[in-house]
Amino acid sequence: QVQLVESGGDSVQAGGSLTLSCAASTYMTTIDGCMGWFRQAPGKERERVATISTYSTQYADSVRGRFTISQDKAKGLLYLQMSSLIPEDTGVYYCAAREEYWCHVEVSDYKYWGQGTQVTVSS
């Protein structure tokens, strides 16, 4: 069983910055899987924000150039540095993981999920 625990969500002004963290259980440090950040805005479907594996780093078009995903695999930590935040970035941000190394865009392809952390960007 993989546990993912997010932290770092907050309320910020537009143009501000925020860094999210996700702590993964030991199992994820021993396999070559893919981890990612997804978000869900009120009334909308959950969407991929960014994913990372040993072989690739990918971003949604809406965040490319503003967000940076990184990981400390040995410690089981995943990060999302967010800058130039806009109100459209508001939502619950989820950490997700899959055991395979290739990163998919679809929510359904990720087996493990955290409980989510709220990010609110006000104008």
How would you portray this structure in words?
Helix content is 3%, strand content 47%. It has 123 residues and is mainly beta. The strands form two sheets. Strands 2, 4, 5, 6, 9, 10 and 11 form a seven-stranded mixed sheet that branches. A four-stranded antiparallel sheet has the order 1-3-8-7. A hairpin with a 4-residue loop joins strand 7 and strand 8. The chain is globular. The termini are far apart. The mean pLDDT is 95.
Distance between the termini: 40 Å
How helical, in percent, are the residues?
A: under 10%
Report Rg: 13 Å
- Main sheet overview: 7 strands, mixed
Tally of separate helices: 1
The mean pLDDT is 95
**DSSP strand content:** over 45%
**Oligomerization:** single chain
Q: Ranges with pLDDT <50 over ≥5 residues?
A: none
Number of strands: 11
Which sequence of SSEs, written as H and E, runs from N to C? Answer: EEEHEEEEEEEE
From the helix content, strand content and strand pairing, which structural class follows?
mainly beta
Shape field:
globular
